[in-house]
Amino acid sequence: MNLNSEIEFYAELRLLDKARLLNLFLHELAEEARATYGPNEQVHDGQHLRFVNELYHRLTRVIEQLLAEEATRPGDDVVLRMLLAPRADKVAERLVFNAYARAIQGFESYDTTVLMGS
Is the separation of the CB atoms in 6 and 84 below 8 Å? Predict the structure, then answer.
């Protein structure tokens, strides 16, 4: 995965589509996080469950800022680097990369978003 090309792709999206992509990513990340606990909801990898929770916390705020068109939201490169920059923790890196890859694959299969009154 080429970080710079992912930043370029994301930067070209409309605000609503950026929010859609991040939301789809969070959905896929939740799927990845299921590996951190067992069938009886016994957490066996609390470190990575907390990592996912922290990423959720940050990205839901970014999505809110995108939808509100806040000028103070983080730059596109900051958001993508937060997600896709190499990590010392390779398990966390794999969680993010797997979720991002599925999100991009699912996102690209959509037609352009059409809003009522646009």
Answer: yes
